Amino acid sequence: MLFILGENMNKNQVLLPVDELPTKWYNIISDLPEPLPPPKEPEEGPSRLEFLSRTMIKECLKQESSSQRWIPIPEEVRELYVQMGRPRPLHRARRLEKYLGLKKTKLYYKREDLSPTGSHKTNTAIVQAYFAAKEGKETLATETGAGQWGTALSYAARLLGMNCVVFWVRSVYDWKTDRRTLMKLYGSTVYASPSKQTSIGREILARTPNHQGSLGIAVSEGLEYTEKHEETVYCLGSVLNHVLMHQSVIGLETIKQFEMIDDEPDLIVGCLGGGSNFGGIALPFAGEVLRKKRECDFLASQSVAAPNLVRGEYKYDFADVAEHTPLLKMYTLGHKTEMSPIKADGLRYHGAAPIISLLRHHGIVKATAYPRDEKATFEAAKIFLQSEGWLIAPESSYAVRATIDEALRNEKTGEEKVICMNISGHGFLDILAYQEIILGEK
User: Fold this and answer.
1) DSSP code, position 27
2) Is residue 268 located within the same domain as residue 149?
3) Cα distance between residue 91 and residue 45, in whole Å
4) Taking a C-beta distance cutoff of 8 angstroms, is the pair 219, 239 a contact?
5) Does residue 2 belong to any structural domain of this protein?
6) Is residue 386 domain-shared with residue 274, that is, in the same domain?
7) Which of 50, 119, 141, 241 is most buried, with most CB under 10 Å away?
8) What is the Cα–Cα distance from 29 to 100, expressed in whole angstroms?
9) d(CA 251, CA 268)
10) Which of these, 283, 307, 309, lies nearest to 296 by C-alpha position?
11) What's the CATH number where 349 sits?
């Protein structure tokens, strides 16, 4: 039996004082190895940039193109961060280390599962709702894949006294009934996507009545709905620069927490679909690597169902199926690509964030992909549950799987190494997925 005693206790859970909560977001744009390729207009059709100016939050679009390294966090947002549990702890995974028999490798994990809705998504949801309210908007419209983003925006909208409309990928909407209930309890209207609420949804359903949906389709529906409804603004939960910037509070806290225990990571690991949680923990560290302040590697863990960084092509592509958005330079599988549903549906997106794509292009970010049957990743989640005691989201299981694999690989080399992973969410609303894949029950 493993006992954690005395001198180790303050290093097993590293708590950052509230007065150490970051006062500024980190924007990596000015530190990138080359200028970030700007969004482009397609050769045909109306201006997509002008469309976004009509449908998205103006302050967020301003942040999207900012080259300022540090963006002040409004005091009201910092107060909301504290209300929703920031700063969040960093844990040393000693029991997981013991389970794996690690001698040379230390493991840490950041606890983003401790937010009110159970994921990191609240870090940008509350910001977008705050700026939308200041601009006089009444309704927030959005998409969601696994449901964490839709839940987070529902929470944020309610705290700011706003309405929320969520287009949810149908394959997940159909089985995550408890998460759907939570969104509705916050007061949101939730539609299975593709839906009959939009022209793109009706067009897809006319061709394929039982279409299971995708994040790209849901994005298209959210944008179309926004354009046709007054005092409504569209909010995006991943991919774009301002989203990754808001999420930088994760990595900024983590840097301070490692300083508190006089340690530092050699490898940062996170799951990646569009890139919000991976970017949140990795980019502040990557910025210091680019500024020659530290050495650190970065590994994104993906599904073979949507391996945009592993098998995608680095090129300009639309961010949605209906081609409402500008063209973004990113690693993409193609915006029309059909991708099989998985339980970790938050990872099922055709493109990776432009910032992370550029870092991948320069070899700063590496990526791996695990089989779509998810047995290996869910087994890692089971190991984490039975050693560390926390039930994590299916998406987070990919980070744990990659961390375990890297740790065991490192043990064979005998190198001293510290690995830090981001736990992006809890799994309490994903019990049916664990019941099916781990227990073999339906």
Assistant:
1) -
2) no
3) 50
4) no
5) no
6) yes
7) 119
8) 38
9) 10
10) 283
11) 3.40.50.1100
Q: H/E element holding 219?
A: helix 215-228
> For the stretch 286-320, what's the b/e string if a residue is b when 16 or more beta carbons lie within 10 angstroms of its beta carbon?
bbbbbeeeeebbbbbbbbbbbbbbbebebeebbbb
Rounded to whole angstroms, how far apart are CA atoms 442 and 440? 7
Task: Determine the Cα angle at 138 with ends 137 and 141, to 5°.
Answer: 90
The reply to whether 212 and 264 lie within a common domain is no
Structure tokens that stand for 49 in this block:
């940039």
Domain range spanning residue 141? Answer: 26-73+120-234
d(CA 278, CA 348): 15
Nearest CA to 65 out of 52, 81, 80 is that of: 52
pTM of the model: 0.95
Contacts of 138 (CB under 8 A, 6+ apart): 162, 163, 231, 232
β-bridge mates for residue 367, sequence order? 300
pLDDT mean values, one per 10 residues, the chain (442 residues): 47 92 97 96 93 94 96 98 97 98 97 96 98 97 93 97 96 92 97 95 95 90 94 94 98 98 97 97 98 98 97 96 93 93 92 98 98 97 98 98 98 95 96 94 82
SS3 9: helix
Phi, psi (deg, nearest 5) at residue 87 = -70, 160
- Look at the alpha carbons of 41, 45, 47, 51 in this order and tell me if their dihedral is positive or negative: negative
**Sheet strands (E) in 183-251:** 189-193, 232-234
Whether residue 209 is contained in a domain is answered as yes
**Does residue 297 share a domain with residue 224?**
no
Beta bridge partners of 167: 143, 191
Rounded CA-CA distance 264/261 in Å is 9
Tokens of 61: 């679009």
**Per-residue tokens: 121:** 């998504």
Task: State the CB neighbour count (10 A cutoff) for residue 205.
Answer: 15
Q: Which residues of 136-158 are buried (b: 16+ CB within 10 A; e: fewer)?
A: ebebbbbbbbbbbbbbbbbbbbb
> In angstroms, rounded to a whole number, what is the distance separating the alpha carbons of residues 134 and 301?
37
- d(CA 120, CA 142) in angstroms, rounded, equals 17
For residue 138, tell me if it sits in a domain.
yes
Structural domain tally of the chain? 2
**How much of the chain exceeds pLDDT 70, in percent?**
98
The enclosing H or E element of 299 equals: strand 297-303
295/33 Cα distance (integer angstroms): 15
